[in-house]
Amino acid sequence: MSIQEAQVSRADFDQVMVPNYAPAGFVPVRGVGSRLWDQSGRELIDLSGGIAVNGLGHCHPALVAALTQQAQQLWHVSNVFTNEPALRLARKLTEATFADRVFFSNSGAEANEAALKLARKVAYDRFGEQKYEIISTVNSFHGRTVFTVNVGGQPKYSEGFGPRPEGITHVPYNDLAAMERTISERTCAVILEPIQGESGVLPADQTYLDGVRALCDKYDALLIFDEVQTGVGRTGKLFAYELYGVTPDVLTTAKSLGGGFPISAMLTTEQNAQHLSVGTHGTTFGGNPLACAVGGAVLDIINTPEVLAGVVEKGEYLREKLRILGEKYGVFAQVRGKGLLVGAVLHKQYQDQAGALLAAAEREGLLVLVAGPNVVRFAPSLIVEQVDIDEGLARFEQAVVKFVAQNGA
């Protein structure tokens, strides 16, 4: 029996994989829409969306068709060449956003790495080597490379990996006064998530983003919006910056862009893009034809008035139902978010128990997420069917009942 045909199980993970993950005790093998099945045939409703990745659910026919067609034509040609799917996708992105230019890579971390390198290069070219400082926010998350993990504002992810890169400062999120005290002529960039995702689904205040935009203009610093999680329809707009009417200088996106196929993008203006001249940055697989063909199909579906309006409507419905459920059982202090990025904040009596509630939901056949120890996060397919929302909420209520019984005061 070949390796491909060999029977494997969750136990094999502990034997052959690096133990940096602690995966669930079951192995998904098939998905359709917002439903998953594991090796035993058990069905689960997926309101996690692969951590906001499966924007069109599992195995959407249009994405399967785009990938299959491209797989029969061209897989990879290296960045010695360009390719048609990359050009088409870049055109769609620039036509739909503030941006003039696109750089494709494979993950959110890579897109953020490119954005941060671009910011330092722009500042170096325009103002000299003293302008290199980067301001990020406490509890932010921007990726797992050595650079991006230190730009992120969660020390638990950067500890143990050697000296921190110089010139990175963290200030509290939604605190404009702290930003004003910190930014200076030495600042080359401010990087923000319009909605902090991993730390609790915390939206930015309008006045905060307006103020940060003005400060960046004053000090000739690039404003980078990390829309790895909020981008490509997640908030009910193609990108969250549109919700606020605040335009960044650089935007990064990934997750939903490929609907499950690895791809990311950094978007910026013509003026900024010129500082990444030939040889200054690159990637082996970024912009490959397979990923870009899928990304193009994703955008064609999501960037439509019908789908984006549906995201807003379904998000409002999901938040309201969670608020009602939270009040009924006294389990949530707040339900927040935009579109179909929703965070349910646990009451203080259930402090640090988000993981336990996630596990309870899984036992009821429902997949949800956490965003820190105190927030249960929902990031379902942007076209999730109403029946799946309702059945998912019914299963979640069953989980809440058992969770409260086991963990209540």
TrEMBL record:
GO molecular function: transaminase activity
Keywords: Amino-acid biosynthesis, Aminotransferase, Arginine biosynthesis, Cytoplasm, Pyridoxal phosphate, Transferase
PROSITE patterns: AA_TRANSFER_CLASS_3 (PS00600)
A Pfam family of this chain: Aminotran_3
Superkingdom to which the source organism belongs: Bacteria
EC number: 2.6.1.11
Localization per record: Cytoplasm
Reactions this protein catalyses: N(2)-acetyl-L-ornithine + 2-oxoglutarate = N-acetyl-L-glutamate 5-semialdehyde + L-glutamate
Pathway: Amino-acid biosynthesis; L-arginine biosynthesis; N(2)-acetyl-L-ornithine from L-glutamate: step 4/4
Positions annotated to bind pyridoxal 5'-phosphate: 108-109, 141, 226-229, 284
Modified residues (N6-(pyridoxal phosphate)lysine): 255
Note accompanying the cofactor annotation: Binds 1 pyridoxal phosphate per subunit.
Group of enzyme by EC: transferase
Cofactor: pyridoxal 5'-phosphate
Residues noted as binding N(2)-acetyl-L-ornithine in the record, renumbered to the chain: 144, 283
Keyword Amino-acid biosynthesis: yes
Matches recorded under Gene3D superfamilies: Aspartate Aminotransferase, domain 1, Type I PLP-dependent aspartate aminotransferase-like (Major domain)
Family statement: Belongs to the class-III pyridoxal-phosphate-dependent aminotransferase family. ArgD subfamily.
Note: May also have succinyldiaminopimelate aminotransferase activity, thus carrying out the corresponding step in lysine biosynthesis.
Subunit structure: Homodimer.
NCBIfam families the UniProt entry points to: arg_catab_astC, argD, PRK01278.1, PRK05093.1, PRK12381.1
Listed name of the protein: Acetylornithine aminotransferase
Species, as recorded: Denitrificimonas halotolerans
Source lineage: Bacteria, Pseudomonadati, Pseudomonadota, Gammaproteobacteria, Pseudomonadales
Primary gene name: argD
